[in-house]
Amino acid sequence: MKQLLAACSALLFAAPALAQDEPFSDWLNDFRPRLEAQGASPQTVSAMLDGLEPNPLVIERDRTQPEFVRPLWEYLEIAASERRVSDGQSALRENHVTFQTVEASLGVPREIVAAIWGLESSYGAITGDLDVVQSLATLAWEGRRRNWAEAQLFAVAEMLDRGYAYRGELLGSWAGAMGQTQFIPETYLARAVDFDGDGHRDIWTNYGDALASTANLLARAGWAEGVPPAVEVVVPDDFDLSNWNPDQQRMTAEWALRGITRADGEDWSADLNMRAARLILPAGLHGPGFLTYSNFNAIKRYNNSTSYALGVWLLAERLAGRGEIHQDWPLDNPPISRSQTQDMQESLVALGYNPGVPDGIFGPNTRSALMAFQRQRGHLADGYAGRLMYDAVIAARNAAQAGE
Length: 404
Known about the structure:
This protein is mostly helical. It is built from 19 helices and seven strands. It has helices at 2-14, 24-37, 42-49, 56-63, 72-79, 82-94, 96-106, 110-121, 132-142, 146-161, 185-191, 207-220, 252-257, 270-273, 294-302, 306-319, 338-350, 364-376, 387-402, and strands at 130-131, 171-172, 230-234, 249-251, 261-262, 276-280, 289-292.
């Protein structure tokens, strides 16, 4: 470990591109009086900042983006693996009184809470062992997310001054997430609860506090009792994609009139028929589709990722003894890599579309540009950036360049 840290330190300080040009001490000397001005006690300021040094591993993790994008189907198999389901069902049995109380008081199903617990820390087994203050200070000094990281440090100071946590227990991930369900400090202040009434909101070692805090976050995000986060659906091959986009909401009954059926073969309930839902096609029209409801958005308040929300939903379903994906995934058409995404973005720009700045990240602007390309070029406008569509975009760019 010492050799790894030495190597990372050498990389950090030899390569200005990996950190701010200013010395860490300059940022620290600037931040200390601002932390004091926010009202942090001298004892807390000293506990947080005295002797603090940056952690080069944090910058390495923050700046290193994976080249290859894991297909959703592989992610879901890991998220809802047999081992994770088995461990989760054991956790539900062993802690059934706590789960029952949390569900009764906050209205969030125990399987959903358990699923988040499982995905965030393997049911409390892996919570992170990095100093949260050091991680956040490193991110603030690095500068890419300075305002966000400094806001978290202000929240840490408030946690310490209010006695919510002790300096030594502030351990977590490289990104500053803490405890068994990985709260960032601002979220801890806003949503963590003292489940057992001992005067300490302990999300690190007290699973009751951690689970109740998770349920409270979802409840405050608008969790609606009795509404599924998602339902797998069958989308007919002749579905009209001309005015569809994944942010569009319609009543379930209207989706049904457009040919959308449940993949499990059941009829739509009267309640769901009157619920607004979004149709998402995360692997394109030739993969499973999903109608997502308001509770899907509540899960995304925890982690703003469609894959994560689907992972929580699927794991929760499997914990409840359900959770089968009925349709096949397009295994022959996996998602493209980051460098391929940037190639696609640059090609779309060259063809007159507007995917935003070519950065290798497939976001809403790139999806809109790709869908416009698909509509105008006679492809299914499902917005899925798979290998086949990548080939089509690159071929169109090459043809346009050859004709110049």
